[in-house]
Design goal:
Blueprint lengths: L2 E6 L4 H10 L5 E4 L9 H10 L2 E4 L3 H10 L6 E4 L11 E2 L8 H6 L3 E3 L3 H16 L9 E7 L4 H9 L11 E3 L9 H8 L6 E7 L5 E8 L9 H11 L6 E3 L2 H6 L14 E8 L4 E8 L3 H15 L9
Parallel strand pairs: 1-2, 1-3, 3-4, 4-6, 5-6, 7-9, 11-12
Antiparallel strand pairs: 7-10, 8-9, 10-13, 12-13
Helix pairs in contact: 1-10, 5-7, 5-8
Length: about 325
């Protein structure tokens, strides 16, 4: 029998991509609310409680409201908003994050989908902290650039809709200048850091694709680790993973540039160890699709785990 799934907020960027990934599956029955009753509290409560699994693609406050409407203890929830990413009682939906995380997601009824930026940042930070190579009180800086789709409808209109009041032809810009980006708390907590990292995001004039970077002075770290030491930690942490690949040192050395759109349309994430052993500096990089492994692909991966299905189905 097919599992009944309701995407609350299916008209948004993430919701549309999740629906596309699930629409042809025979093991999933997608249910929708009558558009005319979308704001009817009783109708929303009814459909939320009738589903086997609900995916929330809503603003934070609306996501909290939706969760409060769910009274059926059997209804499972994946929240794609920021609302529950560090909340008690919610599993963080990054199966590859650490040993036991996949099992935790499988057994949970409440899972928070990670942010796109934090997926790359945590993938780079956590294994180093867990190994002891990177002290958990280290002053970490994370730099990143994303396609404009990561900003949702408003930012998409800014770059695509010439009729929009905010339309711009700027090729690249930085933002969150006050260092208060909403992904920072989850980077810190799930990265295993005691100190709040400095996060400097940017957006480019292309639709999707993302690069997240962690620069390190190796000579300042305890034990002065080598680039190979870092690579070995990543290789061990992600060995056997279907969707996270640690690029070989030889392949990384052969590269002279990296395209942020390189994994678009996939649920993959590739990790690179760049840098110079001579200068004792490392440039650690995660490449992913902000709408794939950074959003809709991750949601479907978590759905598969929570419903006891093959983890890679539909992605």
């Amino acid at each position: 029998m097919a599992h009944k799934v309701f995407i609350d907020g299916e008209a948004g960027t993430t919701g549309l991509q999740i629906r596309e990934r699930l629409s042809d599956r025979r093991d999933i029955q997608l249910v929708s609310i009558d558009p005319e009753r979308r704001k009817d509290l009783g109708a929303r409560r009814e459909i939320l409680n009738s589903a086997d699994l609900v995916i929330l693609c809503l603003p934070d406050d609306a996501a909290r409201e939706a969760v409060a409407l769910i009274e059926n203890r059997k209804t499972k929830v994946i929240d794609a908003s920021t609302a529950h990413r560090t909340a008690e009682g919610w599993a963080f939906g990054f199966p590859e994050m650490c040993k036991g995380q996949r099992k935790l997601i499988k057994e949970s009824t409440r899972v928070s989908n990670p942010g796109c930026y934090s997926t790359g940042a945590i993938a780079l930070i956590r294994p180093l902290v867990a190994s002891g190579l990177l002290p958990n009180d280290w002053p970490v800086s994370v730099n990143a650039v994303s396609g404009y789709s990561g900003g949702g409808k408003q930012m998409i209109a800014e770059f695509e809709d010439e009729g929009s009041a905010n339309y711009t032809k700027v090729p690249y810009r930085i933002y969150s200048l006050g260092l208060g980006h909403k992904h920072v708390p989850e980077m810190q907590i799930h990265g295993g850091l005691l100190t709040r990292p400095i996060f400097t995001p940017a957006v480019g004039r292309y639709r999707q694709g993302m690069i997240v970077e962690l620069p390190l002075h190796l000579t300042q770290l305890p034990g002065e680790p080598s680039l190979n030491d870092l690579h070995d930690i990543y290789a061990k942490a992600y060995r056997g993973e279907q969707f996270v690949e640690v690029v070989s040192m030889s392949e990384a050395r052969a590269l002279t540039t990296l395209d942020p759109e390189g994994l678009n349309g996939t649920n993959k994430m590739r990790l690179f160890v760049f840098g110079s052993q001579e200068t004792g500096q490392a440039r650690l990089v995660a490449l992913l699709d902000n709408l794939g492994k950074g959003a809709s692909g991750a949601a479907v991966q978590n759905l598969n785990l929570m419903l006891g299905l093959d983890e890679g189905d539909g992605i």
